[in-house]
Amino acid sequence: MMKKTSSIFFLGLLCATFVHADEFTEFRKKYRTLRTVAGNGAKDGGNDWLTSMEGKAATRADLSRPHMTMADAKGNLYIADKEAHAIRKVLPDGSIHTIAGTGRAGFSGDGKGLECNLTFPNGLYVQPDGTVFILDLGNHRIRKLDLQGNLVTLVHDRERIVIGRGLWVSPKGDLIYYCSNSRIRSWTPDKGLGTVAEGFVSLGNIAVDAKGQLYATDRGAGRAYRIGGNGEKVPIAGSGRSTGGGHGSPALETAMPGTRGVALLENGAFLLATHRGGDIWYVDTKGVAHLFIEGEGGGNHHRGDGRPLDEPGMKISEPRAIVMAPNRDLIITTNDTGYVRLVVRQ
């Protein structure tokens, strides 16, 4: 009787494994190759932007530690060019343009985006119509860049935004979530500022699904969480250790050091970018981790453009963020030398 029970259990486990593998395999069929859309990988040295780069090919531009890239419905890309104190826009023709910031740190008030100073813009959130929300870290503000190029402050956090990067804005702009080191903060026009969840080691990024469920990554803890209505942190991936687990293992038993980027998928699975681990992970609907893109937690790896993603070998390093564009392409912002990579949906 024990043998029969064990056999049934083994068969069930085997079937479940195939189901998980099939889910990941189907996903990977849709995302086959990687290509570079911005950044030239020049050695980082603070503000590396030159006026000669304006309007030229984005792949020849020297980006300055960008931490987030998002797209609008027309295929324009928006980059938070952190240490150059500016926001860049890459058009579908591949040219790059400054749309906010003067290149000088400071606060000069609101007005025309190109005439307003930003200070270490560490994150952004883009609506499908091209409205851009900026986490202006050094000025402790969340600012809105409208379609006419005007910049206005929506939130001024007088408690300071510390090591903030994660930002999410509702479609109507009437709810904002953002990260400030160990706290996820919220803002609404009626209630103003509040704290949604706290007690993190050092937050990475946040995402919200179609039902309004909030998710967060904690790069300091090496974990990802689903946030409960009372601020409860429910672990969903990452063991919190530096080694262990891996491809095909439970996500909660897999080391994901420096978990930062998070992208929620339509099927209920999600992607995680690990800065210190260097990889992109697919966590399936059963909580199993699959290595999607292999990378390294240091260095300046920039390989594999046009090659199959499942081909062995490192292709990226230190991914800061991963997001899904409105057309379902995947956008990855990587390392201090500032590459933006695109995985086009087939």
Name a few traits of the molecule:
single chain, 346 residues, 4-stranded antiparallel sheet
What does this structure look like?
With 346 residues, the chain is mainly beta. It has one helix spanning 2-30; strands at residues 31-38, 69-71, 77-81, 86-90, 96-100, 111-112, 121-126, 132-136, 141-145, 150-156, 167-169, 176-180, 183-188, 192-198, 203-208, 214-218, 223-227, 233-237, 259-264, 270-274, 280-283, 289-293, 295-296, 316-317, 319-324, 330-334, 339-345. A 5-stranded antiparallel sheet has the order 6-10-9-8-7, with no helix packed on it. Strand 9 (141-145) and strand 10 form a beta hairpin. The longest helix has 29 residues, at 2-30.
Walk me through the topology.
Blueprint: H1 2-30, E1 31-38, E2 69-71, E3 77-81, E4 86-90, E5 96-100, E6 111-112, E7 121-126, E8 132-136, E9 141-145, E10 150-156, E11 167-169, E12 176-180, E13 183-188, E14 192-198, E15 203-208, E16 214-218, E17 223-227, E18 233-237, E19 259-264, E20 270-274, E21 280-283, E22 289-293, E23 295-296, E24 316-317, E25 319-324, E26 330-334, E27 339-345
Parallel strand pairs: 23-24
Antiparallel strand pairs: 1-27, 2-3, 3-4, 4-5, 6-10, 7-8, 8-9, 9-10, 11-12, 12-13, 13-14, 15-16, 16-17, 17-18, 19-20, 20-21, 21-22, 25-26, 26-27
Spatial sequence of strands, sheet with the most strands: 6-10-9-8-7
Q: List the uncertain runs.
A: 1-19
Q: Label the overall shape.
A: globular
* Strand content bin: 35-45%
- The overall average pLDDT, rounded, is 92
Largest sheet, described in full?
Answer: 5 strands, antiparallel
Secondary structure tally, helices = 1
Span from first to last CA? 49 Å
Oligomer classification = single chain
Tell me the helix content.
under 10%
The chain-level structural class is mainly beta
Task: Please count the beta strands (DSSP E, at least 2 residues each).
Answer: 27
